[in-house]
Amino acid sequence: MQNLEGKKTTLGDDAEIYKVGTERSETKSARQHWKELSRKGKWDYFVSYYLKKIALLLVVCVLIGCMIYAAVRPKKDPLVYLAVIDNVLEADRLNTYFEDLSREIDGGKHPISVDTRLTSSVLTTQDMGAISTYIYAGDLDIMVAVEAALTSYAKSGMLCDLSETLPADILAAIPEEDRYYYHYVPDKNAPAGDTTRDIFVGIHVAEQEFIKSTNLTGYPIDYLLTLVTTGKHVKDGNAFKVLRAIYGLPQTE
To answer: What angle do helix axes 16-23 and 39-46 make, rounded to 10 degrees?
Structure first.
């Protein structure tokens, strides 16, 4: 059936709205004809012309509401920010490992944020700038990298002296053969009285489970783990919770 404007509708030919429409004069207003319809006629008219539009509008409103909620809802604060520089590990397995570790530490209330996208290559100055930006902003706590990448940041004084930073229980759990020392030689800009010395800045972690279970290369990778001096979760002690969980040590307050 077509309406008075020639458009097809879903109503049957015997719908009351058409009965009224064929009898009305052309001078009657839409409001007057609406008043002439019975309850069934008004319902038929509403279903034909408005119900689908209202349903579509409701769906759009729900979708917009979900997007707004997703944007403004409180996000879980990370337990720590960890980056694997020049990553060759299987990222999904690595994330799963640290998800399990966060549940072990605090029931998963605060996730361990793992970034595997960054590289230290001199050809990717954007990534190098991003790493430095994270460090200066305090948004990087634990760095896992090969020796060449790690020493470049050790030279800049961005890495913790672990012999001074780590709590006694973690220090005792790290064997001497797993400790990496950076040979520091002061340059002309060094503070007066600064001396040449070996600084404990990294831990060999190739035999740790989070490396062994995610290394799919078929050959050993001598990754080093270090702490960043500016890391906000190094300062609040959360980074130590992660190290204790990695080494199977009991958590302390």
So the answer is: 100
Pairwise CA distance, residues 226 & 224, whole Å? 7
Q: Residue 43: how many CB atoms within 10 A of its CB?
A: 14
- Give the DSSP H/E element, type plus range, for residue 18: helix 16-23
In this structure, are residues 212 and 204 in contact, taking their beta carbons and an 8 Å threshold? no
| Residue type at position 99 | E
Q: What is the pLDDT of residues 115-127, one digit of tens each?
A: 998 887 654 555 5
pTM above 0.85, yes or no: no
Helix (H, G, I), strand (E, B) or coil at 10: coil
Report, as an integer, the average pLDDT of 218-247. 94
Here the tokens at position 44 are: 């038929």
DSSP 139: -
Under 8 Å between Cβ of 247 and 239: no
All domains in the chain, ordered by first residue: 16-72 (no CATH), 80-246 (3.40.190.10)
State how far the alpha carbon of 51 is from the alpha carbons of 5, 56, 63, 137, 213, in Å: 20, 9, 19, 53, 56
What is the tens place of the pLDDT at every residue in 77-117?
889 999 999 888 999 999 999 999 999 999 989 999 999 98
